[in-house]
Amino acid sequence: MIDCYTWTTDNGYKPRVMLEETGLQHRIVPVNLREKAQMAPEFMKISPGHKIPAIVDHDGPGGARVTLCESGAILKYLAEKSGRFYPSDPVTRAKVDQWLFYGSATFTTLAQQFGHWTIRSPVKAPTAQVHYDANLRDMLGILDRQLASGEYVAGDYSIADMTMYSDVHLHGVNDIGLADYPNVRRWHDAIAARPAVQRAWGPFPA
Questions:
Q1: What is the pTM for the complete model shown?
Q2: Are strands 26-30 and 2-6 parallel, antiparallel or unpaired?
Q3: Could you say which of 71, 165, 171, 195 has the lowest number of CB atoms within 10 Å?
Q4: Which of the listed residues 67, 85, 103 is the one where a domain comes to its end?
Q5: Which of 15, 45, 18 has the alpha carbon at shortest distance from 29?
Q6: What are the tens digits of pLDDT across the range 36-48?
Q7: Does any domain span residue 180?
């Protein structure tokens, strides 16, 4: 059993999608960021940086209990555990890693700053708003050019796609629009139609 500690954020949806796609037995544990639940001492034993998502795998390698935070690391761990959505060919795997790390470290980070400065922050900072708007548009352009040569980011549908989908869904579709990024629109809509993705983006289980 895997306990998945998460909330309704871009990073928070990533392990939910992967768990639904793989069918790994899991339990969703909501961590209400609005109530600062991520600061609870017990949660910080799992996620030292008090961030979601985090997982606890009660049946890790050799029966070990594995605790893990950081969305990219979680996606990679779940891919290796399940043997799915992570290619065995070393050359293709290297490309998936490239886009996984780009998505986790760059795309999501800058998309979150876009969301903060242009949508959520009560403080209006026009310089920051212009900066992060331009960053998000640039990243959508990078992704669009990559997707011009293939259905998915790095070969078949993989964790490389999962790591950027939620940011595109939340900010690309709703805030920027994808009219100027037709390849991203096609890619987004194909992923959005997957039953596992629809389940992952549904309400938390009762």
A1: 0.94
A2: parallel
A3: 195
A4: 85
A5: 15
A6: 999 999 999 999 9
A7: yes
